[in-house]
Amino acid sequence: MKSPRISRRTLLRGLGASLALPSLEIMGADKAAVAPKRFCSFFQPNGVYPAAWNVTGLGEGHELSPILSPLKPVLGEFSLVRNLDNVGGGHVRMTGSFLSGREIKNKINGITLDQQIAQLIGHRTTLPSIELGTEPPRQGNASGEPIAYANTVSWSSPTTRVSPEINPQVAFDRLFRDHSGPAMRKRAESRRSVIDLVLDDAKSLRRRAGATDQAKLDEYLESVRAVEVRLEKALNPPEPEWIPTTPPEMMERPPAGLPRDRGEHLKLMIDMLVLAFWTDTTRVGTMMTAHGFSRQNFSFLDGVSSDHHGMSHHKNKADAVAEYTTVSKWYIEQFSYFLQRMKSIKEGDSTLLDNSVVLYGSGMKDGNGHVRTDLPIIVAGRGGGSLKTGQYIEEKVKTPHANLLHTLGLAMGLEQERFNESSTGTVDGLLV
Question: What pTM value is reported for the model?
Answer without folding.
Answer: 0.86
